[in-house]
Amino acid sequence: MPFDRWRAAFTAAQRAVAGLGLVAAALSMPRVVVGDVCAYVTNSGSRSVSVIDVRKRRVRATIVVGDTPRAVAFSPDATRAYVVNGRARTLSVIDTATHRVTATVAAGRDARDLAVSPDGRRLYLTNGSFDSVSVIDADTLTPVGDEIPVGNAPRGLALTPAGDRAYVASVIDDLVSVLDPETRTVLADIPLGRGPLDVAAHPDGKTVYVTNGNALSMIDVRTNRVRRSLRLGNSPRNVAVAPNGARVYATNGDTLFVIETATDVIDSGRPFASPRDLAVTPDSRQVCVVTGNVVAITDAEGHVLDAGIGVEETPAGMAIAALPGPCWATAEPTPGAPPCSGDCGGDGQTTIDDLVTLIGVALGNGPVAACAAGDLDGDAEITVNEVVTAVTEALAGCGN
Fold it and tell me: What secondary structure does DSSP assign to 133-161, as a single string?
């Protein structure tokens, strides 16, 4: 097609997209890919990880991993997710751009939890039945030195934001071990209530929170002493701290607790059916909670926004991150010319008529089925970015 006709189409597309509230000049710039906020949930009963699009509140991908996946953590840049497969004694590495496993290596023994160092260079795994912590090099995926002995039946693990201390909860010995990751030594053992289970560190590096007995205990990092404990009752389970540091969230057998960190006071207790692990979104505005075989989403105050996003069998651990890309799995590269975005007619190219149809759908003047090729992420809607992509690819000669 002559270039002047494409120029005319481009101008028409500019005007139409401006009607959606964008500046027309934005269409002449490369598309800016903004990543999604995604929750990775380990399903220990089905050897898989569910990927939840937190904004859309639905599962967008399911990733097969090893036997009994228990915990998951992201690299600092969120390009990788690490999953410990307890019974398989392996570590799965997931590329978050494609949501596919890129490596599975032997790591840990009955691993229960893991944490990634702030610089992304080391992984720390608690070996639940072997009273130790394994250290893994994130680049080579090989062990670093021998396992570090800790208390009996270690479960939860958290690193301080500076990465200079690791706190490990040992269920049977009723204590938290403080490790120096550099020297690989235990600096202190802090006695706690019965069965300490989960650990989380405040982003200011001053306090570590531990669920135990019937309480949430707060450890002063400077002194390694418990400065306060809040009674939660009914077997506290998991704990998470909002990235902005304003609130701490903890679960017990039937409640989600919201605690204000400025006052160390329980702001509210919201009833939940068997809540377990939980995580807070990067903007600190929402909380995802594993409850039964679903994941619930609440606002920052604990009010339920979505009571049940179904995942796979026996969900266990969870982590949330703003990923570089979308929550859905991208396609494998295909040889030859790439498919054309917005090719509504399916003839291998995006024509002026295709662009008109695509823009009409984006404006709400037609069903998405009228141009399924423009729905790049499969979310049943045509967005401005998807229109921009189609126009840009058409101008570049997609399909020629």
Answer: EEEEETTT--B-SSPEE-SSSEEEEEE-T
Contacts of 336 (CB under 8 A, 6+ apart): none
Quote the CA–CA distance of 152 and 174 in Å, as a whole number: 9
CA dist 32 and 196 (Å) reads 45
Torsion of CA 321, 327, 333, 339, to 10 degrees: -140
Domains of the chain and CATH, by start: 3-33+330-395 (no CATH), 37-322 (2.130.10.10)
- Structure-block tokens of residue 39: 């929750």
Residues of the chain under the 70 pLDDT cut: 1-34, 330-339, 345-347, 378, 396-397, 399-400
Sheet of strand 207-212: strand arrangement: 199-201, 207-212, 215-220, 225-231
Q: Which residues pair with 120 in a beta bridge?
A: none
Tell me how far CA of residue 151 lies from CA of 174, 263, 275, 354, in angstroms.
8, 31, 26, 65
Render the burial of 224-260: b for 16+ CB within 10 Å, e for the rest: bebeebbebeebbbbbbbbeeeebbbbbbebbbbbbe
**pTM assigned to the model:** 0.77
What is the C-alpha to C-alpha distance for residues 310 and 322, in angstroms, rounded to an integer? 21
3-state secondary structure of 41: strand
pLDDT, tens digit, 9 for 90 and up, residues 82-123: 999 999 999 999 999 999 999 999 999 999 999 999 999 999
Closest CA to 72 of 46, 107, 103, 42: 42
